[in-house]
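Researcher: Please predict.
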Amino acid sequence: MTEYPESQYAIQIVGAEEFVVNKEKGIDKVGPHQMMLKVEACGICFSDTKLLHQFDNHPRKSEVIAGITPEALAEIPNYRPGSQPTVPGHEPVVRVVEVGEKVTHFKVGDRLLVQADWKHLRTAKSNGAFGYNFEGALQEYTVVDERCVVSPEGEEFLIHVTEGPSAAAVGLIEPWATVEGSYAWAERNHVADGGRLLVVGEGSVEELTADHKPAEIVTVDVAGINGLEGQTFDDIVFFGADADGIEKASLLLGTRSVMCVVLGGETISRKVSLDIGRVHYDFIRFCGTTGTDPREGYAWIPANGDLRPNDKCAFIGAAGPMGVMHTMRAVTSGVEGISVVGTDLSDERLAGLKKTVGPTAEKNGVPLDIINTSTTPLEYGYTYITCLVPVPALVSQAVDMCADGAILNAFAGIPAGTFGDFDLQGIIERKIFMLGTSGSDVSDMRTVLRKIEAGIIDTSISLYAVTGMAGFGDAINAVINRTSGGKIMVFPTLHDLGLTPLTELGDKYPEVAAKLVDGLWTKEAEEVLLEVAK
């Protein structure tokens, strides 16, 4: 039997805006279907702050209602739905140190990257997730159940990684994968087969539904929308330009639904209030046509949100941790003829962006401009804009800077239920596709892993600081207040290490700083830190 310490250090969120550093948290027992993971390192994500703010109101903190039996759930010691305290942390690299007798996919010694969204485990509005309703990796040891991390179809949510890269570099794959996922997500340019279609107003959907057939079609006039409260639809086709009606109908969109506004020559008289948070978290989409055929609206939805040849790209908030990743992905994408603009409000942060991304952009022949938008506002004409600041007004303003046929990626995690006023008339006329995505798939993580192995990217360029458990409070506040210059990596076995930016390592641990290469993290630096900081 594997032996463990009597207790461990752990971060626990115990309520909205409440967390504790528990120095004596128990270590769960391993059951037949379970395995014990020892945490090497875990990144702090902006999504962790949302769990801290929302706690049991977060959609991924709710109870699992499908995908696993209640009896199996009762056997899982780290299942912590609802108001139960939970351990956050969904960006780790871990080592298997014990397996139960019925575990078949993993063995002791495996080094693994965790894909946190266990999408076969459904909650009322989302899915089971590591670091949410299942305890995560901001602790020294954590148990996972193989029935959670292997889907019924055999997809594994624990990805094997080699011994080569540092724990920090591997832990940083998850946030890079969410970036990758925002470009790879497959969009739908037709009505959902077997779904529910709502038709508002007078117009024909016969040709729209000829090849893709919904299971149910509900037809109402604008006044009839009020009688549909509580229902959701996979598609909504709205004939006309009634702004009030459009707003009411949009509230009936289900997850991953599309609303097509068929103007028929009419004009929407004002900006329309739309739930931009649901574009990001629930993948709702808006399209339309100035004509009378709804097929024209669906037709301009792109296959995915990836960059296209000759795109003129702007990344709003590019100097933040996720912005650096988006900008680096663009300049290493290999897409022909693109140009990139990165914006921020801080000259200091922009200088860091230019230092990090500039040499790679120059090497790859990608024009890169750095702009402080507090003094130099962006102008009209971009064909791809990514908004990395969670402010609805900025996403709305970005519409005005979009050229015809542009893609607007609302990447920043604006909470669902957050509305903004959007020029839907302009979106339809100029065929601007507004998308948003949340999380990543295993395929996205494997894509990033391949890029690391091929030397295309170095995820450690995103690493700003390291910390042990003692520095978690400072670290999470730096993320909340957006004062960190990049990602922060937690090493749970380092109990007393405070938040330490890489630029300050020379003062605290010169022997660690000596192992950095061009100021970037290395496996050698990590190994020395784990020795000297205990």
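Model: The radius of gyration is 24 Å.
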